[in-house]
Write a structure and sequence with these properties.
With 181 residues, this protein is of the alpha/beta class. 51% of the residues lie in helices and 12% in strands. The protein has eight helices and five strands.
Length: 181
């Protein structure tokens, strides 16, 4: 398969928790033969604890600093990576600026709060933010939506689509020809 968007070095998936970044990112990275830089996985491997454990021990601001550092490090790397950025990175102006860089093709994955909450609830490694994830995620969508929109090349709704279907769309949006012909 040919490489996406010749001017872009990194293909970055951004969005709220439960939007499908990791599931789609794994497929896209596999299809492109590129490394996957997933925020949760990379931070957990480096720190030896889940992001939930890190948040509980060091606090949410410290965890968000680690997530921002992960994205900035990934985008500064020389490799051709698929990057799954933590939702919190959009709050950091340095991350927003980096996502707008000419060496980045960023796709904002969206989902309704009900869809995201159902996905979010299945992930024990993630911090909990209140008793009702749908309420939390709806608030996050309202607060962060304008920031995501300002920092991404394209928005892609994930509701009702499988990770494989979403990966097809991401690759199409990134300018990767259909491998079947």
């Amino acid at each position: 398969m040919s490489d996406p968007v010749p001017a872009a070095r990194h293909l970055v998936l951004i969005g709220l928790m439960g939007s499908g970044k990791t599931a789609v990112g794994r497929i896209v990275a596999n299809r492109l033969g590129r490394p996957l830089r997933d925020s949760d996985t990379d931070i957990e491997a480096r720190e030896g604890r889940t992001v939930r454990e890190l948040s509980d021990a060091a606090g949410t601001p410290a965890m968000h600093d680690l997530e921002a550092s992960h994205l900035l490090d990934a985008l500064a790397g020389a490799g051709l990576d698929v990057v799954c950025a933590a939702a919190s990175t959009i709050d950091d102006s340095r991350c927003r600026d980096a996502l707008r860089g000419s060496a980045v093709f960023a796709v904002w994955l969206t989902a309704t709060s009900a869809t995201a909450a159902a996905r979010f609830d299945d992930q024990a490694h993630r911090p909990r933010f209140g008793a009702d994830p749908a309420v939390f995620l709806a608030r996050q969508a309202a607060e962060r939506g304008p920031l995501f929109r300002s920092a991404c090349a394209v928005e892609l709704a994930t509701d009702g689509l499988t990770p494989d279907e979403l990966a097809d769309l991401v690759l199409e949006l990134a300018g990767v020809p259909d491998p079947a012909g």
